[in-house]
Fold this sequence. Notes:
- The complex is a heterodimer.
- Chain A is of the alpha/beta class.
- Helices cover 30% and strands 27% of the residues of chain A.
- In chain A, helix 17 (511-530) runs parallel beside helix 18.
- Chain A is globular and about 95 Å long.
- In chain B, helix 2 links the parallel strand 1 and strand 2 (76-79).
- Helix content of chain B is 33%, strand content 14%.
- The radius of gyration of chain B is 22 Å and the shape is globular.
- Chain B is built from eight helices and ten strands.
- The interface between A and B is large, with 106 and 82 residues.
Amino acid sequence: xxxxxxxxxxxxxxxxxxxxxxxxxxxxxxxxxxxxxxxxxxxxxxxxxxxxxxxxxxxxxxxxxxxxxxxxxxxxxxxxxxxxxxxxxxxxxxxxxxxxxxxxxxxxxxxxxxxxxxxxxxxxxxxxxxxxxxxxxxxxxxxxxxxxxxxxxxxxxxxxxxxxxxxxxxxxxxxxxxxxxxxxxxxxxxxxxxxxxxxxxxxxxxxxxxxxxxxxxxxxxxxxxxxxxxxxxxxxxxxxxxxxxxxxxxxxxxxxxxxxxxxxxxxxxxxxxxxxxxxxxxxxxxxxxxxxxxxxxxxxxxxxxxxxxxxxxxxxxxxxxxxxxxxxxxxxxxxxxxxxxxxxxxxxxxxxxxxxxxxxxxxxxxxxxxxxxxxxxxxxxxxxxxxxxxxxxxxxxxxxxxxxxxxxxxxxxxxxxxxxxxxxxxxxxxxxxxxxxxxxxxxxxxxxxxxxxxxxxxxxxxxxxxxxxxxxxxxxxxxxxxxxxxxxxxxxxxxxxxxxxxxxxxxxxxxxxxxxxxxxxxxxxxxxxxxxxxxxxxxxxxxxxxxxxxxxxxxxxxxxxxxxxxxxxxxxxxxxxxxxxxxxxxxxxxxxxxxxxxxxxxxxxxxxxxxxxxxxxxxxxxxxxxxxxxxxxxxxxxxxx
Amino acid sequence: xxxxxxxxxxxxxxxxxxxxxxxxxxxxxxxxxxxxxxxxxxxxxxxxxxxxxxxxxxxxxxxxxxxxxxxxxxxxxxxxxxxxxxxxxxxxxxxxxxxxxxxxxxxxxxxxxxxxxxxxxxxxxxxxxxxxxxxxxxxxxxxxxxxxxxxxxxxxxxxxxxxxxxxxxxxxxxxxxxxxxxxxxxxxxxxxxxxxxxxxxxxxxxxxxxxxxxxxxxxxxxxxxxxxxxxxxxxxxxxxxxxxxxxxxxxxxxxxxxxxxxxxxxxxxxxxxxxxxxxxxxxxxxxxxxxxxxxxxxxxxxxxxxxxxxxxxxxxxx
Lengths: 641, 318
């Protein structure tokens, strides 16, 4: 067992040589709260002698103090890490454990079985080659067992060990074991899991973990550790795929060297191989595979390498170097999303999407359906909330190279990032590209934004007025436009109320509708900027994310955010339209400032404090600032101002 | 921008007759290199914390590999508490000069002014002021947004749940509830101004992996890891080496020459030696495999209070 090999004492050099050739297996354990998962992992560590005396002494003391085994050694305490979790008696996050035997090193992702932690299980499963699914022999296949198996299959794990635990509590009864195994196989086949190895165990007593148990003479399959030591790795399959090298970083120490670095996702590469850079499609040949230890003749999936190419072609971070069947290129996809944030997914909101080394802006459509992970039913949904899984279309701001997730995890799996908090809020799997993205091409136009603006003798821009209802946005925007008009500027105004009478008449005031409202206005503003106009937008636009999205649609210098800052109490006292009164009485729902949030700008280009100046003074100030920014000067047909 | 129209190139990848089996060390190495490149591609001002010990030695070696033929595009930072073994400092200066890297050192000036030290203030105060606070000062002073650290998940229970990219608030605090899920090898390195990320490229290495890799790759180490005759006193059950004359002797204490070595290196008054004759790497690995106590046992700071490492991490300790 483990590294307690006779060789250690007698011939350490021989031992080291043997251990340098160990392989690595990553697996995940899944089970419900009381299935004995932590006990099993503790047992694996213990049986492979990975527990030192000082840790053992601490374990014995802890077992007496907080253990659940009546003072006996409680192996679960070895793996329950954070103090808060230990008190609650459950693990609440993903933990990674390590042990090794003479043949393999193992990394175990230990994830909770608790109802609301789909997120953690998907995270742990994403790096695993195999899943150990625990079932309590007394309870058989539960809803949780089905859920865990579905997630395992969704994330692409192909090998499953069904560990039927607590066999000691059912008298090591073969009939019970056989029934559970046959129930499980029937279900597993439905979700595409056909490589299932079932083992009857007792984590507490150690039966069939490291050595064959006398209590199960009827069992002729492998014991757990033997199976984990010998199960074939995914390595061979990955190496047989087409070459995919997501380019991470371009190494340019001097003008003579340009190396493309990355970890090979699939396939193999040799000097002389013809490769293509995606999405550009440019082609070249591999010149060298450069490493610190000398050039290589061959590199395989899993290795981190540096390639040089024979031709000077464009290739940068986020591109994929490929051979064989090239990856597809598209900007719209059907995807399966796993939502991981407390805040619900908002269709239409712009999120960051990171796939491989590529970061792009993405918007998500309403889900086609969400999946009940317990029954696998498809349900109608408007959005996804924490731990929900759904199928949605995603649209990107540029084309990317990809493979369907089922073909290649590294080039088909992505994470979603909130643009404001930068939190990782979801994970996604690309199912396929939507045909329409390949058929609609961007039309290159000869007359462009600059030439249109030049004709008007101005520079186009968006003046984005944001603030509470009744803050004075529209009043001030109107005054600013009058001044600009008088100066011979070409302008237009998009006003919240007015646009809601036409373009956005189908939208209400829920968070999702507010996001869509602003998305449309932002797109229209962009068209106006393309037309060369100074566009005044007057919308409450309560969320930072959407204002950021609008900002990102145009050039940095073209977006001027004007925060019309009126305290809620002042706006409510003015209540020009009587809306606050209605909202306070409950007659108007989702009213910004009352029962719907307003996220004030942190660094607006222009900040107007309406308690300190009149609308006229505010308009003067804004025009003055526009002049400072060079938006109003020279090259026009009227008098210089 | 479509590739539809491009002609299908004459690509005939040669099939691999039999798969190439990567060893666990090759896979760990590839993962660490991937992590380091990801940081360099996504951060503005990264730094590598260099503590001179064996884990730092491996991390530095991997950095050299990751960016070869360029040098690692970041400086090394050593937070010097003023109480490191003299041999550590000599080794540090030597290795940095040989590799041609930039080394920044920082010692908490307030701590120095107040004369903070382990003998006068105890291990908890000394570690907090000279190490934890000193580290925060250095990160703030240089405006580093990402710092590599050599911590491993197998070191201690609370580390087992640590992310590879560990997110810190502008006050350097670690909140176990606010850590980002890490899927596949897709790391989220985005942050707001002022926030920072600690990145642990050795997360999935074990102590044995580290030693095997040092052996395989011939990585130079501080001689303190190898057994030699050294002056020590036994104090509170721990063998402390008398590295300089700042160590006050208690009544009856006389330094003795003993064959000892260190399994882990830190401030000399806080680092226990073990009696040993292991003078080569294979000897050390042999001893480690046959030993019955974990490496952190030699560290005085971990025993201060229950769940102490977790508490220190929340406060900003690495």
